[in-house]
Design a protein that fits this description.
288 residues; alpha/beta; 8-stranded parallel β-barrel; 47% helix; 15% strand; binds zinc ion
Length: 288
């Protein structure tokens, strides 16, 4: 069933786990995530990232995402990941998305807060859940950011996070404390003390979100959930595992013709398997 993300986050907070938040830029990923959620009887969010609009435009994938979410046996939110322009997020509202990340994290604190507050005021009456980001996660693994800056220089400040939530009324906040988008060449070690400090300061004003979990060891993810993370965006690890399964199948064909539709099924099966593993990992700290 289709729900707003806010409902899922309330349950996650009550039962101390993190909602899995998975990108679904094609039918294979969409079917795989829905099957994984139903198999584990766990709510998830289906995401369309603005950055994936070249894979499939939001207008084309949204009706499918909504259909699968509505027909699902478990609650699901249909969510925009890293919506960066007013045009894109407004279009998503019209298409029926139940939660939207409005990412103004590359702007100053003041401008980020101003734009997010305006957006929250606009969409809360429609029952839409809003996510924002504070601190700047580097765009991809291994990206060192501006010259002379370390990764840690971009981490979220606990006091600023609390002030941001107070000013904006945002429902959930993506924070930066060690993860990176994509899969880097070394495992990501998280600044759990910083996470705990952010959780302490933000309190129940907003749920905390972690992006870029793919290169993070399971033990670190578990610590993050225990430390208060209530939604985890997770995609790259699942996506590249599907590629590896497809490559293996092609190689096994030893040069014979391989049907693409069969490859899509093999990819779907691997996507589902990895998605189930991720959901179990996010659930592993659940207390009830
Ligand atoms: Zn992200």
């Amino acid at each position: 069933m289709l729900v707003a993300l806010g409902e899922l986050l309330k349950d996650a907070e009550k039962n101390r786990y993190a909602v899995g938040s998975f990108n679904t830029p094609n039918l294979e990923t969409l079917r795989a995530v829905v099957m994984a959620a139903e198999e584990t009887n766990t709510p998830v969010t289906l995401n369309h990232a603005m950055a994936h609009n070249h894979v499939i435009p939001v207008e084309e994938i949204a009706p499918l995402m909504l259909k699968y979410a509505k027909e699902s046996k478990v609650p699901m939110s249909v969510h925009i990941d890293h919506g960066k322009t007013p045009e894109f997020v407004h279009k998503a509202i019209r298409l029926g998305f139940t939660s939207i990340m409005y990412d103004c994290s590359e702007l100053s604190f003041e401008e980020n807060a101003k734009r997010v507050k305006e957006f929250v005021d606009l969409v809360h009456p429609l029952g839409i859940t809003v996510e924002a980001e504070l601190g700047n996660m580097l765009l991809s693994a291994g990206d060192g950011g501006a010259p002379g800056k370390k990764k840690e220089d971009y981490y979220t400040d606990p006091d600023a996070a609390a002030r941001f939530c107070e000013l904006t009324g945002v429902d959930c906040l993506a924070i930066t404390f060690g993860t990176e988008h994509g899969i880097g060449d070394k495992p990501q070690i998280l600044d759990i003390e910083r996470l705990k400090a952010i959780k302490e300061k933000v309190g129940d004003r907003a749920a905390l979100v972690m992006h870029g979990g793919s290169g993070t060891p399971a033990e670190e993810i578990k610590k993050a959930v225990i430390g208060g993370i209530r939604k985890i965006n997770y995609f790259s690890a699942i996506d590249v595992a599907a590629t590896a399964a497809v490559v293996k199948e092609i190689e096994a064909g030893a040069g014979k013709p391989v049907h693409y539709c069969e490859l899509a099924l093999i990819a779907t099966e691997m996507l589902k398997k990895k998605c189930v593993e991720a959901i179990n990992m996010f659930n592993s700290a659940r207390t009830s």
